Structure formats: C-alpha cells, structure tokens
C-alpha cells in the first residue's frame, strides 16, 4: 500500500516513511499502531510519502526489525512513535525556520 500526498513541494524534499507492521496478521493486531502513525503524520501530509510494509518481509530483515517500526528516509528507525513524533516536529520546525522547503 502506498500513498503519495503532495502539493507544491519538490520530490527531493519529501520525507519518505516506511511503516512496518505484521501484514500477515489480522489488521486488528496493528490497527491502533497505524491509526497513531496517521495521527502523527497528518500535520505534515503534504510533505510526507509513506508505504506500509510487512515487518516479516525482506526489507524489514535488512533493517533488522522484529517489531512495529517506522523508518525515515531509509536511515532513521523509530520503534517508538513518541520518538517519531518528536523527530517530525523538530524536522519540520527547522525547515520552517530556515525557509527550506
């Protein structure tokens, strides 16, 4: 599943998130997690692209994931959604202050 929401931001300035959950389980097992991720990224919806991927898939293995997680730009791994929320707030506040974006 992939969703791309953009307005007038250039593609290289869009944050790319990979949301890893156990897609081979019942959605009831990860729905709360996905709902929380959506709640966190909603304020930045025009500046984020995300994919939902299986935490038991090859990409998750490459990132050494064993539980729900969000990977930002293929580099930063967040097992804590509080950590992801803080990162996004700081990242986008910094972009606003520097006029980048």
Would you mind describing this structure in some detail?
A hairpin with a 3-residue loop joins β4 (69-72) and β5 (76-78). The chain has a single domain (2-98), classed as Glutaredoxin. The radius of gyration is 14 Å and the shape is globular. It is α+β, with helices and mostly antiparallel strands. The protein contains 3 helices and 5 strands, in the order ββαβαββα. The model is unreliable at 2-9 (pLDDT under 50).
Notable characteristics:
disordered N terminus, 101 residues, alpha+beta, 5-stranded mixed sheet, globular
Order of helices and strands: EEHEHEEH
CATH architectural designation: 3-Layer(aba) Sandwich
How many DSSP-defined strands?
5
Summed up, the domain count is 1
What structural class do the secondary elements suggest? alpha+beta
**What's the average pLDDT?**
88
Strand fraction equals: 15-25%
Fourth-level CATH superfamily: Glutaredoxin
> Biggest sheet, strands in spatial order?
1-3-2-4-5
Shape: globular
Number of DSSP helices?
Answer: 3
Can you summarize this structure?
The chain is α+β, with helices and mostly antiparallel strands and 101 residues long. The chain has a single domain, classed as Glutaredoxin. It has helices at 31-41, 58-62, 81-98; strands at 2-4, 15-21, 48-54, 69-72, 76-78.
């Amino acid at each position: 599943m992939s969703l791309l929401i953009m307005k007038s931001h250039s593609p290289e300035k869009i944050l790319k998130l990979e949301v890893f959950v156990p897609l081979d389980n019942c959605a009831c097992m990860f729905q709360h997690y996905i709902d929380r991720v959506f709640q966190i990224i909603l304020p930045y919806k025009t500046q984020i692209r995300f994919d939902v991927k299986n935490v038991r898939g090859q990409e998750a293995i490459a990132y050494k994931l064993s539980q729900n997680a969000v990977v930002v730009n293929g580099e930063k791994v967040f097992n804590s959604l509080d950590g992801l929320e803080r990162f996004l707030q700081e990242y986008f506040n910094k972009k606003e202050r520097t006029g980048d974006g």
